[in-house]
Every structure is written in C-alpha cells, then in structure tokens.
Amino acid sequence: MAKKSTKTKTKKKKHNKVSSLSLSMLIISFICITIVVIYFIFQYKNIDEFKLKPIDISSDKKETRTPEIDSQVKEKVIELVESAEATIETDTQVDVIEETKTSVDEEIVISEPIIRDKAKMYVVNPNLPKICIIIDDFGTITNTLFDRFNSLDTEVNFAILPGHEKSRIQMNKAVEAGREVLIHIPMEPDIQDNSDKKLNLETITINSSMTDFEIKDQIETWMFELFLAGGANNHMGSKATSDERIMKIVLGTLMQNDMYFVDSYTNSKSVVSKVANEIGIKTIKRDIFLDVPESSKANARKKIEEIKKIKNQDVVVVITHCHSDIKYRQLIHFIDRLKDQGYRLIPASSITLSNL
Description:
By secondary structure, the chain is of the alpha/beta class. The chain has a domain at 126-355: TIM Barrel (Alpha-Beta Barrel). 47% of the residues lie in helices and 14% in strands. It is built from nine helices and ten strands. The protein has helices spanning 2-46, 67-107, 143-149, 167-176, 212-225, 244-256, 272-279, 297-308, 325-340, and strands spanning 114-117, 120-123, 130-138, 157-160, 181-187, 231-236, 260-263, 283-285, 288-289, 315-321. Helix 5 packs across helix 6 (244-256) and helix 8 crosses helix 9.
C-alpha cells in the first residue's frame, strides 16, 4: 500500500508539473497574440491612406469584413501598385534620357577646352598663344617665401641657381609639387652695358676666360647637382650669350643630356638661336620681363597688353623673379588676368623648335 501511495503521489506531481507548464505556455501564447493584435489594430488605425469605415464589433458576433470594405482595400492596393509601376517607369525613362544625353555629349566637339584649377573654372581660347612663365633665382630665398611661390599653378617653371645651400632642397620641393625646374646657369654679363648697375655675380660664372673643357665640366657639375632639371636658362649672360664658342659648348652639353635651353635674351646680339639651329637643340627665347621696370599690378596689366600685340607665335615666354612677396603678389594678379582672358599656361618642356 505504501508503494502504491508513493507512485500515486509521483504521478500527481508529474501531472501538476505538466499542467503548470501547459498553463504557462497558454498564458505566453495569449500575451503574444494580444500584442500582435494590438499592434495591427494600432497600425491599421494610423494608416491615413486606408480611410475605411469603422467595423462594429459586438460581444456575441465575430469580426467580419463587409464586401464594401474589401472593395475599398482592393481599390487602394490597385492604386498603390499602379503608382509604384509609374515610378519605376519614370525612373527607367530618366535612365534612358541620361544615357542618350551622355552619348550626345560624347559626339559634341568643344572647340574651347574648359580648365578647372583650384575650384575655379576658366575657358581657354585656342586662338591665343600659350604662356610659359619662368621664375628665376630660386635657391637664394627663404623656404617660407619659396612655399608661397610653390603654391602657384604647376605649369609655372622654377629656374634654380646652382651652388647655394637651398638649391637642391628647393629643387626637390618644386618637383614634388609637380612642376618643372631649370638650371639657372650663371653667365658673364657685359660690364660695359651694365656700368650703371651693381651686379651681384655668382661665385662661379661661365665666362670668356674659361677653356672649352672648363665650361663643359662646370655645366656638367651643375647638372649633377640639380639632377631633376629638364632644361636650363641663363642668369645674366649678356656677354656670354653673344659668344658663339661659349654657347656651342653650353648648348652642346645640354643637348647630349636631352635638355632644352631658354634664352633669357638679355642681349639683342644673342647667338643662341643661331647656334641652336646649327646643332638642333630644343630652345626658345624670352619675350617679356614681368617685373621690369617694376613689380606692380599696374605693370602686370601693361605686360598683358604687350602680349596681345605679339602676333604669329605659338608661345610667349614670360620671365620674372622670386626675390620678394611683392613679386609674388604681382605674379598672382598677372596669372589671374591671363586666365580671365583665355590664355593657357604651359611648362617649359612644351617648347618646340618652331618657337625660335
């Protein structure tokens, strides 16, 4: 009897556990269903697009949907579907229009290329000569002033004097900025032509007392120092550039290293063009000194008027100097005016023999 009673108690305990578990599951299910129903009722009441008539619900009746309500829902669904289809069709038409526009644009040939520079757009007039700007005497100025000039358009070229403490440093910075550098070769000036001026000659200057070997060796030494330079121009040199012997050695040495030469044209008797034609080196001569007689915005505007008078040239070469912030500000003004009038800036390497 005792064993029977124990079994009965065990069965009751198991039955009670099952009952408790079932009741818990029922309660949880009821809560979940209630939450879902409340959510859908809340959503249903807050959808303004579905403006249906309220449904009467009584305690002794089940919820029913009248044919009228079903019809309203159907109409609204059809309306939304049609709206979605119209949107898709419109998007497709826009894509087709964009594709057509792209293909049409590709066929249009623009005669005047648009150049974007530092968030400013300007239009280049292909009928105007290109402008090659060279700034002389780098290597002799402070790094702070250099950095200001180095913020200019990368088409502006830097001519660097060799043999100075900052020469190679400023060459590297200029090239890293994406611009071209030239060796600014110190050359002998004509003392008689400059008797009224105080000339600051470089420690080493190519001059008429040097032998052919000395001239060539010195040019190669400077080429080794400023090894990233693509070309050269003369610093002073009114006497040296009128000497055929000197210029044949200078230009010949440059040509052997595939470099070009820009004649700063400090002497109207320069033989650079003649010698260049004979040996076939790529060269061009200066047309305008921007900072002569002064560095000012008014003078910059006068120089642009001078450029306008230059005819039958593909390129106009403008030379200025880097000695002061005034020269920097004059150059900024000059470049802005050039762009406004449709001129294009080019690097010095773009020069050709046709520009002699």
